[in-house]
Amino acid sequence: MNRKNLPLLLMLFAGAVTCIVTYVMDYSVAAKLVSLFFVLLLFYVFGSILKWTLDRFEKQNEEKAELEKQNSEMSEDGEMGEAERNEPENVEIAKDA
């Protein structure tokens, strides 16, 4: 999934809400600009963190799917499956008397 524009869209939406709120609350122009700057900066950082987190989860899911695919291919080829690989083999241990 393309998440490239997620931080920008989140920042834009937050900036629009900030502009409307500061206009309705009758802030001065300087206060509007300062609050808009900090809101844009804050929501860009939040959006970047969100994008990074979602990309990381997607990468983990892809790795897990690839591993499951490899395991299913191995079991179809007649090799040992996951359950058989985890069982210990019967090994006799020689004790020194």
Report on the architecture of this protein.
This protein is an all-alpha fold and 97 residues long. The chain has one domain (6-75). It is built from 3 helices and no strands. The chain has helices at residues 6-24, 29-76, 82-86. Helix 1 runs antiparallel to helix 2 (29-76). It starts with 5 loop residues before the first helix and ends in an 11-residue tail after the last helix. 3% of the residues are buried. The model has no long low-confidence stretch (mean pLDDT 85).
Describe the secondary structure blueprint for this structure:
Blueprint lengths: L5 H19 L4 H48 L5 H5 L11
Helix pairs in contact: 1-2
Query: Considering DSSP H and I runs of 4 or more, what fraction of the residues is helical?
Result: over 70%
Number of helices: 3
- By DSSP, the count of extended strands is 0
Structure classification: mainly alpha
Distance between the termini: 65 Å
How large is the share of residues in beta strands?
A: under 5%
Mean pLDDT: 85
Number of domains: 1
Q: State the order of secondary-structure elements, H for helix, E for strand.
A: HHH
Evaluate the radius of gyration: 28 Å
Shape: rod-shaped
Unreliably modeled segments: none
